[in-house]
Amino acid sequence: MIRFFLLILLVFFFICTFFTYKSLVAQRIIAEDPNELLSYNEVDSILPFFPNLGLSSTPIDMHRALYSIKEGDYELAKELIKKSIKVNPHTYVGEYLYARLYLAENKLDSALYYSFRSFYKWPKNPQHYKTFNEVLVILKDSTSLLAAFDYLDSTRKLDPTYKDDFIKSYNEIKIQYLLNNFEDKVSVTKDKLRGSWTRSYFFENGEVVSDSSLVYNFKDDYFINPSGNSFKYTLSNDSLNILSITNPPKLFQKINIYFSPSRNALLFNNVMFEQNKYQNQFFKKTD
Rounded to two decimals, what is the model's pTM? Predict the structure, then answer.
């Protein structure tokens, strides 16, 4: 009888060991899929039904929930989130998953509520922090972003996982306030154009950030570009005609150019900065 009981225990031990090993392997595969290229079916097939907790006491169904959200199966995701909460309600993984779900559904009020709770209740998980930041970027809420970073302890503030995401998120919010046009743009004259112009970035709040390595210097009939090369130019119908210095001159490029009186700045409209990619570029007069 004792031998039979020991045999049962031994079989049970090997079964538990087998499924635990299988779970660890599956979690490793998922960890190596940060862009979630795996399908829900693939993830579901490699995750065992036992044990229901993974590394760091993470509910195994959390992985299934994230992949179901990715594939747009929100009803399945809600069931998996409920199961995850039952398995471990203490690390606020449910709030994190609901935040991911409502982000996917573009329900920003709900996403903000749950991401706020998941981060402030359990800041130990960097995914909670990143998801909260993701919502704040969409809402352009730099005040809450700064407050969340300030809430972190000194160790996490130095942790690249947190620090880099804070910097990235802050820059993403800031760039949303970047002006892409001048509401008071007018034609520019040679008299206004004469002088040095530094590449600058103008923000809605009036802030200006300049890049002193990119300067154009315009004279009466020629200009010097940031690389130190000289070109002749003419102005006509809001166009800057860039010409070679040869005689006769050859037309290199034509750029639509405007002047902002309130900012004493130039707008180069729809300039190609990479192959088949265009953007407006702005320059602040520096002399």
Answer: 0.73
